[in-house]
Every structure is written in structure tokens, then in C-alpha cells.
Write a structure and sequence with these properties.
Order of helices and strands: EEEEHHHEHHHEEEH
Number of helices: 7
Number of domains: 1
Radius of gyration: 23 Å
Distance between the termini: 54 Å
Helix content: 25-40%
Structural class: alpha/beta
């Protein structure tokens, strides 16, 4: 192959041993190489501060809302590129021949790669954003409490927010948090999806069954508390996560 231009995502140390390398070509025509190294594991002596914690409630519009009321991200990468993608796909569909097994022309293949390139661009934007957010949280907090959700079920049409759920990549976000916190000797605590985080008043503990209705975006309690649905849920997830962590410890 000779010398090639490449973007190196991580520089290996001099004592790392190369075990294997896998070259792959994506649908947009670009080549990628994944290299497996072997190296001695270094023990991280860091002791996590269990009082330095944050609770995250999943939000289809914004990725998450934390217990302080902060929203994760306002980007919707698929929707931001929807018009450009739709235009490229329409052009591609017009190139398709009438014969079922017709050999595709060079123009068709070029246009197909353009469509795949847009898909790859959307995926890369999402991945880059999730890495930045998850790294920031893992560096700032020692304990992160989240809900254990079935994202595949939540993307179902019955919930009415399938595109938003798939677009924000919350499942990937949790996976990133898990390994980044583990590398730092920190904790990711998953609260059961059956825990009624949206229905409990975090102030007095009273139950509000009416909050099962997703259209209600604010909780108003007899104790005088008025708070957004998502922030209240995030506070409850934080409290329950810390309780679970204390039990395990």
C-alpha cells in the first residue's frame, strides 16, 4: 500500500504490542483500520467521592435533563440534515431502472455513495457530540445515576417519538458513560425502569399517578412544590441511585 494519509484517534505507547489489525470499507467508500493492542493494565488509585453525584432523566428532546435542570444537547442531527438527505435520496430513486436485476450504472453508484456519505456524516456528528458530553460528565462527577431503559421499545411508534429517540443516541451515550466512568474508578448506577421517578414528589415523597400522562410537563404538589417533570424525575433518580449505591457498598 505504501504511505497513506490517516486520522489517528489514539496514539499508542511505546510498550504496546500490536496483536491484529482489521481493515474495513464503509458504505460511503471510506476505509477504516481498527488495531488491537496488548498492554499491561495500570491500576487506577483514584477513590470516588460518592457525594459528587448527578442524576440524569432521559429526554427525547435534549438527550437528558439532570437534577439541576440542565439539558444535555439541543442538536437533532438527523433532522438538521433531513432536507439534504431527502433530496439526495430522491435523485437516487430516479436513477433506479425498471428491471429488477438491472446492473447499476456508475452514476447510480456515485449517487448511492453520496447518500451513504450523508448518513455517515450524521452518525459521526452524533458520535462526536456524545463523546464530548459523556467525557465531560465522567470528568466532573464521581457517581452518575440513570434509568435502565429499553431504548428499542421506546423507539416504537406507539410512543410517538421514535425518530427523536433514534436521533439522540441515548443508548450509545449510556455505554460511553459506563466505560469512561469505569476507567476512572467511578460509578454508573442504573435505577430500575419500573421505579416511578416521574410520579414521586422529591420534596415530600407523595405519589402523583396523574404524571403517567406524558403530556403533563410540570408537577404541582400539595406541599407547595412546582417543578418540571424531567427535573423532578432526575432528582428522584439521583436519590434512588445513591440509596442503591449505599446498599451495595
Amino acid at each position: 500500500m505504501g504511505n497513506i494519509k490517516a486520522v489517528i484517534h489514539r496514539i499508542p505507547a511505546s510498550n504496546w504490542i500490536i496483536k491484529s489489525a482489521t481493515v474495513s470499507q464503509e458504505s460511503d467508500g471510506k476505509y477504516y483500520i481498527s488495531i488491537l493492542f496488548e498492554f499491561a493494565d495500570v491500576v487506577n488509585p483514584y477513590v470516588a467521592d460518592k457525594t459528587n453525584a448527578i442524576g440524569l432523566d432521559y429526554a427525547s428532546d435534549g438527550l437528558y435533563v439532570d437534577n439541576n435542570g440542565n439539558v444535555g444537547t439541543n442538536h437533532k442531527y438527523y433532522r438538521e440534515s433531513h432536507d439534504k438527505l431527502a433530496k439526495a435520496q430522491r435523485r437516487l430513486s430516479r436513477m433506479q431502472g425498471s428491471k429488477k436485476h438491472e446492473t447499476k450504472s456508475n452514476n447510480y453508484i456515485k449517487q448511492l455513495r453520496k447518500v451513504n456519505k450523508i448518513h455517515r456524516h450524521i452518525a459521526n456528528q452524533r458520535l462526536d457530540n456524545l463523546h464530548k458530553i459523556s467525557t465531560e460528565i465522567a470528568n466532573q462527577y464521581d457517581v452518575v445515576c440513570v434509568e435502565s431503559l429499553n431504548m428499542r421499545s421506546m423507539a416504537n411508534r406507539g410512543f410517538g417519538n421514535g425518530k427523536a429517540t433514534l436521533d439522540n443516541g441515548y443508548g450509545m451515550f449510556l455505554s460511553m458513560l459506563e466505560y469512561k466512568l469505569s476507567d476512572r474508578n467511578k460509578y454508573l448506577v442504573k435505577v430500575s425502569k419500573w421505579f416511578p421517578s416521574s410520579q414521586i414528589c422529591h420534596c415530600c415523597g407523595s405519589l402523583h399517578p396523574e404524571m403517567k400522562n406524558l403530556q403533563i410537563r410540570k408537577m404541582t404538589c400539595d406541599c407547595g412544590l412546582t417543578v418540571s417533570r424531567d427535573q423532578n424525575a432526575a432528582i428522584n433518580i439521583l436519590n434512588e441511585g445513591l440509596r442503591l449505591l449505599t446498599e451495595v457498598a
